Amino acid sequence: MKNKNDYYFVGAKIDDVDKTDSFLSSGKWELGWFKQENDKQYKKMLSVYNDIKPGDFLIIKSTYTRKKRLPFPIPADESVSVMKIKAIGEVLENLQDGHTISVNWNKDFQPKEWYFYTERQTIWKVPSDSNVVAKKLIDFVIDNKSQDYDWFINQPNWKKYKQVEESLHALTEEDYTIFKDYLDGFLSVVNSSKGNIGKDKKGRDIRNFVKNGTMEGIKLPSGLPLGKKYAATGNKLYRYPYVNNQNWTNLYYDWEPKYFSEPTLFVTVPNQKAEDFKYSFEKPFSVTSGTKQNTVYGFQAKSTLKEIDYKLLLNAMYEITNGLSKEGKSIENEAGNQMKFEFKNEYSQNLIDSKNIIFRGAPGTGKSYLAKEVAADIVSGGEISQYSHLTKEQKSQIEFVQFHPSYDYTDFVEGLRPKANIDGTMSFQLEPGIFSKFVAKARKNYEDAHKTEEEITKEKSAQKLLDDFFNNIDLETNEFQTLRGNNFSVIEVEDDKINISIPNNPIVKFLTLNLGELQKMLESGKEFQKVKDLNNFFEKANATQHFSYYLTLFKEIKKTQFKFEIIESKVEKEKPFIFIIDEINRGEISKIFGELFFSIDPGYRGKEGTVATQYSNLHKDADFKFYVPKNIYIIGTMNDIDRSVDSFDFALRRRFRFINIKAEDRVGMLDELVDRNEALYRMVSLNKAISSVDELNENYHIGASYFLKLKDISFEKLWDDYLAPLLQDYVRGLYNEEELIELFRKSYYSMSGDADESVTD
C-alpha cells in the first residue's frame, strides 16, 4: 500500500466536535477554521494543506497522554504521549478551497494506538523519505507492523521511560501473549458450544463445552495467577479469569443476548471500581444489574478480540483487582463525581495531582506561556492547547497575575479602599483582591456542583423573583416603610448587596443589605411576619438593624404581581479553575499570602482549610470564613537565577511541586519561525558554551522565547540587543569576563558542526 507519496496525520475536531464519522461517511476531510481565515494557526496549517495532492494518504489521529494501562512498563511518575490512529484514506482531490480534501477512506480499518513519537498540530506532514522514526510510524499505520516499544525506550529522546528496575508485578509481553491465547481459546470454545445444553450437579442448565463445565486457570510468567476456572450456566459463561485471585472483575460471554442486542463479551465490575474500569476503553456499553449492583461493561468482540483490546483488558483487570492507582486523568470532588480527561500537555497531570506547581528554570524557556498552555488544556478537558482559542466562559476559569516587590495582601486577598458616598462624604469599604474574587467564583461553582437539583431550582427561582422586583421599581421615587414606621428607599442594587437610604434616621442615613440573605428567605418558602422570625431563621440571639429592612422588602416582594416561578435547573458540573502567578518569587511572599499559606496547602483544600482573614470582622456576613475550594489549581513561574530566589519563603516551598523546565524542553516554540533550524542550532551551540563555564550551569541557558524575537529582528540584532547584555550580567565579576563573552559570541555565530539532535524531535 505504500508508495512515494506523502502521509498527512490530521485532526478531526472542528469547534470541539469530533467529525470523524461525518468525514468517513461523506468521503472528505475538512481543515476547519471556517470564517476564521485570518487566524494565525489557520494560515500556518493552510500552507501544509496546499501541499496535499492526489495519491497522498490522510490519517485521522487524536493525541493525548497516558500514565497507566500501557502495553509496556514505565516509571510511576511519567506519562507517555499517545496518538490514536482512527482512520486511513487515500487522497482523491484537493479542492483548493482552503478547507476540503476528497478522500477514499478505508472503511475496514480498525483504530489503534501509537506511542512516543506524536504531533498535536492539526496537519502533520510525514514525507515518504522521512527519518527512521517516521518510517517506523508509517510501517505501523500502513503496513500494520507492531510497534517496537523497546526500541523507542532505548532512544535518547525517550530514555526517561526506561525503568531502571521493573516492579515485581510488571506485566510483560509474554503475559499478554498467554492472555491472548487464553482469550482466543475461550471464544473458540464459546462459539463451538452453542446449543449444547446439559445439567450441572444442582440440575441447572449448563453449556457443557468442557469436561464438568470447568477449565482450570493458568499462571502468568510474571507470577500472577490468572483466575482459577471458567464455567457456564444459563445463558452466559461466567467467572472467567479474575486476576490475582480477587473476585472483582468477572468476564462473561452473553450468547443469548440478555444485556446487549447481540452476542457480546462483557465484564462485571463492582460499582466502587467501575469508574476506573470504564475509562480504560473508548466506548463501553454500560448496564447495572444484580443484588450487588455490579456495573456491566460490554466490548465489540463477537468471535475474536482486536489486538489493543486484550492488552487494555488485562491491564485494567490487574490494576483494579490489585488496588493500584486509577488512571491519572481525573479530577475528583467530595461527592465522588469525576471529570475524566485525556490531556494534551505532559505537565497537566502534574498540576491535577499536586494542586500547586511552580515551573522553574532558565530565562526565556517559555514558562509563562507553558503555564497558559497547561491551564487551557485543563479547563478545556484536553481539547485546546492555546489560551487564545478558549471560549469566553473557559477563559473565566483562568486568572493571571504577576508578582512584584510592591505587591501586597490588599492586592491579593482583601483590603480597605476609599469610596465616595452618595452624600458626598468619603469612607472606606472592604474590597476583595484578585485571588479572593477568583476563589469566590470557583467556590460558587464547587458548591453549586454539590447541590441537589431541588436546591438549584429554588435558588434560580428566588434569583428570578429578586431580578423582577428590583428591575421594576423606580430607584428615584420608591419608598417603603418598616413595621416601626421608618421610611426608606432602595438607591442601588449591586451583584451581592442592596444600598438603601433612610432619610429620617438621625444616626444612620445609609445602610447596605446583603442580597444573599434576602434570597435565602425567599428560597426557604417560609412566611416571615415579625423581626423575631428572622432571629430564628438566621440563628441569631438578637436582632440587628438590618432585619427590619429585610422583612419589609420580603413582604413587598411577596405582595407584587411577580410570582415565585419554578425554574427547572440541572446541577452544575464541577469545573477546574487555574490561577497563574508569574514571577512568584519577586513578591514578598509572606506579606502577600498572609494566613492563606494554610488554605492553599493541598492537604487543606476545602472547608478543612477554613481561616479567618485579617479583615473578617468587616465582612457583611459576620460568620464569613475563607477557604480555597478543591477545584482551584495554582501555577507559579520563577527564574532560577533571579536573586530573589534566595529569599523565597520555605513555608511556600513545601506547598508547591517544583518542575524544572530546561531550554531544550521547549524547542517546539521555534516551529513557527522561518529560520527554525538555524535558530535551534544557535541556541543549542550557545547553551553548550554556557554549560562549559565552571561558574554557570543549565539554569543560565538561553530559552527559546528569546529566539522568537527573530520574527521581527535579525540574528545580529538579537545578539547585540538581547543576548549579549544578558550574558554580560551572567559573567560580571568573573576574572575572564571578556574571554567568556567572546566564547559565547563565537558559539552563537558558528554554523559548523551538528546540533544536538535530541532536542529536535
Textual characterization of the structure:
This protein is α+β, with helices and mostly antiparallel strands and 761 residues long. It has 23 helices and 31 strands. The strands form 8 sheets. Strands 1, 4, 5, 6, 7, 8 and 9 form a 7-stranded mixed sheet that branches. Helix 22 (715-731) packs antiparallel against helix 23. The longest helix has 20 residues, at 173-192. The two termini are 27 Å apart.
Could you outline the blueprint of secondary structure elements for this entry?
Layout lengths: L6 E4 L2 E2 L2 E2 L1 H7 L1 E3 L9 H10 L7 E10 L13 E15 L5 E6 L6 E4 L7 E4 L5 H11 L6 H5 L19 H20 L4 E3 L5 E3 L7 E5 L5 E9 L2 E5 L9 E5 L9 E7 H8 L8 E3 L4 E6 L7 H15 L8 E3 L5 E3 L7 H7 L1 E6 L5 H13 L12 H4 L2 E5 L6 H4 L1 E7 L5 E7 L1 H16 L3 H19 L8 E2 L5 E7 L3 E5 L8 E5 H10 L6 H7 L7 H15 L17 E6 L6 H5 L2 H4 L32 E8 L10 H4 L3 E5 L14 H16 L12 H4 L7 H17 L5 H13 L12
Parallel strand pairs: 1-5, 21-30, 21-31, 22-29, 29-30
Antiparallel strand pairs: 1-9, 2-3, 4-7, 5-6, 6-7, 6-8, 10-11, 12-13, 13-14, 14-15, 15-16, 16-18, 17-18, 19-20, 23-24, 25-26, 26-27, 27-28
